[in-house]
Protein: C2H2-type domain-containing protein
Amino acid sequence: MNTDRSSEISMVHDMLQEYNGVNPILIDRDILRDHNAEVIVHPCNWEGCTMHIAVEHKQVSKHLQQHHGINTSATSEDTQKISCLWTDCLHARMKPGNLTRHILSHLGVRWICSTCEATLSREDAFRRHTLEKVGCQDAKAVVKYGDRSLVIDTVYIDGGWSASQNVMCIP
Ligand SMILES: [Zn+2]
Ligand SMILES: [Zn+2]
Ligand SMILES: [Zn+2]
Structure:
């Protein structure tokens, strides 16, 4: 990041903070590429992180790569396990390739079976549920987001920020 760019970012940051009286919500600029309407975001509680992440597999994976230097496709036999540095996670250890799904479980999102109302904390667990539970083969998932999730409308993000939503993008 060159200095012009970073001073422009801190200028926007200060302007938003002054306008809204609270720290702006920082999101990855990449989110705009994937969403042209509403997107659900959740605070990233990875050690030292001040950003919000979109609550979906692809964006969580990108965020872990770009901002936390984690190779989220490393799953081979000889891959070293790493510790999850999420606040309140008891430092679960896993291969970096399994971290994205694990972090999704920290984001408060739940999949509720439309047939039996079973609550699953992972999408793959919901899929397995529909395969294994008699009567739930045709069930749909009702997705419920956690209390700390926010809805951001990317339509109103112009030039990388939105004063009304107190949002700014980090390249
Ligand atoms: Zn983060
Ligand atoms: Zn964790
Ligand atoms: Zn069910």
User: Anything to note?
Assistant: Helices lie at 3-20, 30-34, 57-68, 99-104, 123-132. The chain is about 30% helix and 20% strand. The chain has two domains: 3-108+147-170, 110-144.
